[in-house]
Structures
1.
Amino acid sequence: IVSRFSAPTGQKLDDRWGDPTQLKVSATPPEFIVEGSGAQQGLTRTLTLNPDITDADRETLKNNTVDFVSFSYYMSVAATAEPEHNAEVAVRSWTLAEAERFRDSESVRDHRLLACLLLSCYGMRRSEVLGLRWRAVNLDTGMLAVLRGRVSVGGEVVEGKPKSRRSERELPLPADVTEALRSLKTHQRAEALALGVGWSDDRLVAVQEDGTPLHPDRYTDEFHRLRERAGLRRITLHELRHTSVSLMLDRGIPVHIVAAWHGHSPEVAYRIYTHVKPTELRAAGAALFERAAQ
């Protein structure tokens, strides 16, 4: 699903991607957009919408002004055309080795919010990680309930229900995540005690040392700081979610289970998140008339 947006002339393009004629864009809330790019001339942006967004969100994108951010500058753009269907979109992801290198890096393993970073590595949306409250985490059973999300809209952080019905789900946590959450909760209780602040399980998981909720942009910035320190190529937090989907599919996990884990439909998993590797293409071509060549 693709919607086209236009921006006022005179926008300054950020060229830190290396090509000043191309511009990566993302929406607020970020879950609206899977991928986007635009050319400098005419300043027209072509954005691919997440097909799992609600009808109400789609109407908002079609009929209202939506705030977009690209790197260091902001712009307001309005939808100018009806969505086009069946559009293909390319997404990036890390390899298994890259994902493990990030997880195992010293900066990540020693990070105060290791639990949140692991949840992102396991494919939870940024909004879901930042909207998670301790009452939704059962450390005894190792279960986590995705019930809320926190997103940045127009410079303000808004909390609400997850982006779609499928997004509301319960997840059995891997052992390393359960242990990291248990350690974080103990650490946060000590921080609250030192500050003389009362503890409640209604408290957000992703907070700073003083208990202040972590801003979505700060969480993104911290991810990139850790990524750069680990010497890894740039991907977004949403593409870290792509990585989780792709690696699960590569391991042969059935698509309906992968979709249920990540809170979207099986069709999305196949159409958007699967990646054909060059080695797979080479093997397919070599195998087609293999018997005839022998």
2.
Amino acid sequence: SHLQAWSGPRVPDVAYPSLPVHTPQLISIPVNRDQVVLGFVAPSISRKNPDFNTMALLDIILTGGASSSPSSRLFQLREKSGLFYTIGGSLLYNSREQPGMIFIKTIVTQDKVEMAQKCILETFDELYQNGISQEELDMAKNMLFAASIELFESNAQIAQTFLFLKKLGLSFNLFDKQGELLSIIKMSNVHEVAKRYCDKNLMSIIQIGKVKGTQGELSKHKKGSIRKEAYTMAKKVAKKKVAKKRVAKKKVAKKKVAKRKAAKKKAKKKVAKKVGAFARKMKMKLRLVMRKK
């Protein structure tokens, strides 16, 4: 009742600067490690873009989407070729108010870098040139529809979903219409979007590890600054790992303490129960003795 008349100051919407035109390049960062990390990056779209649902279907078909479907093309490429330790990513990485990016990441051995790059770019080119099959489209629609239902499984998920919709200025009944919105997407629509965004020639490639030579923007940097940057990245990763281990150790320690406390409590109850039973027994005996007297 005290806050009914209260109103805070109006906060203006964030004004995002226009993004510069993306120029594809090859960036190589030398790091002393046995494996090479490869990243494939290109511009994507925002959450409010009319092509978002179509792009989300493409994402499931190519990368597996949020559920990491084993039917995705990248997963099948990994299984058939045996080139990759791991592979994954998204066509809608960080797509919110502003456009996100296409981001594919994999780890390979040094001798398989060129072959891995060729295979991934060919996978994009296959999607760009020939599109998808009806079977893939149906599978992606079913998975995307199922994922939208899972957003309302608990009170916390419902709250997060509506907060997300409010933050982006989207309709609260957006997911109620999800089936209808997906049903009108045809293979021709998917092919058009693939042609627009899945061109391998738009890809920038990032190589981290023991790679041959440097090209593109890398030539603008001095070796010392690259080593420093790589060292800083490695240091950050190491710090995160150490922090995670500490948290894990603390959790284990807390569990052990909790177990000990529970065991002590149980033991005390057991002793108290035995003492109580013994006291009752002695009382009964005393009563019998008193009656005889």
